Amino acid sequence: MANSHPDAAVASVSSAVVRPDRDRYPAVMWILLAGNLLVRSAGFAYPFLAYHVAGRGHQAGAVGVVLAAYGAGWAAGQLLCGWLVDRYGARSTLVSTMAVAAAVLMLIAAAHSVPVLSVAAMIAGLTCDTPRLVLGSAITALIADPRHRARLDTWRYGWVLNIGAAIAGAVGGLVAEWMGTSLLYWINGIVYATFAVMTVRCIPAGRYRAATPVTAHDRGDYRQIFADKRLVLLVASGWATLTVLMGIFAVVPMLMNASGLGTGAYGWVQVVNGVAVAALTPLMTPWLSKQLAVGPRLDMLAVAGVWVTLCMGVAGIAHTTAGFSAAVAACSPGEIVWFVVSAGIVHRITQPASSGRYQGFGR
Known about the structure:
Layout: H1 27-41, H2 49-55, H3 60-88, H4 90-110, H5 114-127, H6 130-142, H7 146-179, H8 182-202, H9 222-226, H10 229-245, H11 251-258, H12 263-293, H13 298-315, H14 321-330, H15 332-349, H16 355-362
Helix pairs in contact: 1-6, 1-7, 1-8, 2-3, 3-4, 3-5, 3-6, 3-16, 4-5, 4-8, 6-15, 6-16, 7-12, 7-15, 10-13, 10-15, 12-14, 12-15, 13-14, 13-15
């Protein structure tokens, strides 16, 4: 990675790309949103990992080990990639992590043994979520108005992440049934490599000016960030809710498999969840923007967490594709509120020079 001075929250984006006086949102936002949509639409790695490992002839215990390895890598990757963004910049971090992700996804496509699958899954988890983290860090660094931040957060969750998930679910389910799950990982790897090239070509090296000036006091490390009690409390709440939400990708496919439902059925459940969130996004965006303009709204965060927990509890007693689809669709309004409100809190408490690390630890 190219060595650079870590003053800007998300380094390595040319100031020429950003025109705050002419555009409401800097051009780099649209580049990052498009890149996130691209990789999310081909994000087969985790949703179909249980089916891929089972298809190699392994039992539920081995499937759980590989899924846990991916999860451990993902958790560590939030901290590592957040530090990389603050230290080396968005461009270098995206290019390097996307290249590594592309290589290990292709390894998963060809691997059969549990040890190799586990190591590759851990590295994939470590790197695959970098685009989302970089986008969140850029929003913190470049957008000062809480209403505009809320609008971008709603778009990136409601449309980018969930339309991408719907595409990945539909395409992944069909491809897995027709051609097997290995092809999914080849496609996923090629798309990550494409985004690495896209980053090199579309996000030039350089600087942009953060929305909030950076002072010497702001340049802390993870010890300072861990000492922020507001962030620690948010993370504790977030992990509880995220554990429930990740059931859509980890528990639901295992429950559906136990009910005799294949990858195609699970793909359609993914589509239903993504379409439901995407459909609600334009309806909820104005309301959420107004709510977050006046404060962090911790009450909304709590209600959203309870709601998604109840909905996933219903998924635990479902036995048909329609039942699983209804449960994940019902989660949608709670998902949107929880994601946007928690993201807004992270934006508010982030130190300007540490936006990558705050996004990594807090999101």
